[in-house]
Each structure stands twice: as C-alpha cells, then as structure tokens.
Specification:
Number of strands: 10
CATH architecture of the largest domain: Sandwich
Largest sheet: 5 strands, mixed
Oligomer: single chain
CATH class of the largest domain: Mainly Beta
Strand order of the largest sheet: 2-1-9-8-5
Structural class: alpha+beta
Order of helices and strands: EEEEEEEEEEHH
CATH topology of the largest domain: ATP Synthase, domain 1
Distance between the termini: 28 Å
Length: about 130
C-alpha cells in the first residue's frame, strides 16, 4: 500500500493519525507534500494548514509551527499546537484576532510587533481552517 504513518506530537498530546496517502504541511519556505517512500529529512514548519488525505478523504488541521521529521514511511510532526478543523473554537479565534488587531493599532503599544504579527497569523489561520 502507498501510505505513510502519520503521528502528530504536541507538548500536551499525541495524535496517531494512522496511515495517510498524502500530507501537505506549511513549511517556512512554502508548503510541501509528503507521500510514501519520501526522502528522509527534517523541515521547519510555519503557522498554517495541514492537509491529511486518508482513504480518499481530506482532513484539515491548524498548526502554529514546529518541525516535520520524515523517516522511512513515517512522518512525525512535532508542533507547538494542532487543532482539527472541527475542534476549533471560532468565537475564541475571532476574539484573539480582534485583540491582536486592537493592540497592533495602538500607537504606544507595549507589545512586540513580531509577537503581534504571530498572534494575527495564528488567529487568521485558525479561522480559515475552521471553515474546512
């Protein structure tokens, strides 16, 4: 069978996603796909959407970044956070987006612009993935 074992590890949980025929990840240099017999490697992940294809069905997850380790027919995603599209609290994500936008507009903001940009990116990504 042309599948790859997918495991997603966060600081608080491990998701054994089983066998996937295709996984698309948000790399820091752009999205990349992984299939069975992929060359081994470690790739840095950015905030974005993970697409997992299993048994002809697509599933979408939101991540805030981390690393992908590709081994012989196994893909392990070591990420800060991950949420399946159906698990995302859209109200909470919307509030996070509004809070980050408000802080960004404050002229005397005590918040670091890099942190604010990261907060905006995470909130926007979570909202986008929640609609999948």
């Amino acid at each position: 069978m042309n599948t790859i074992q997918l495991e997603i590890v966060t600081p608080i949980r491990v998701l054994d996603e089983g066998q996937a025929s295709y996984v698309r990840c948000p790399g820091i240099d752009g999205s990349f796909g992984v299939m069975a017999n992929h060359i081994e490697g470690i790739i840095a992940l950015d905030v974005g959407e993970i697409k997992v294809t299993k048994d002809g069905q697509d599933e979408y997850l939101s991540t805030s970044g981390g690393y992908a380790e590709i081994m012989e027919n196994k893909l392990e995603l070591l990420v800060e956070s991950v949420e399946k599209s159906g698990e995302i609290d859209t109200e909470r994500a919307q509030l996070s987006l509004e809070r980050a936008n408000k802080r960004k507009k404050e002229s005397d903001s005590k918040f670091d612009d890099t942190r604010l940009d990261a907060s905006l990116a995470r909130a926007l990504n979570r909202l986008q993935v929640s609609k999948r």
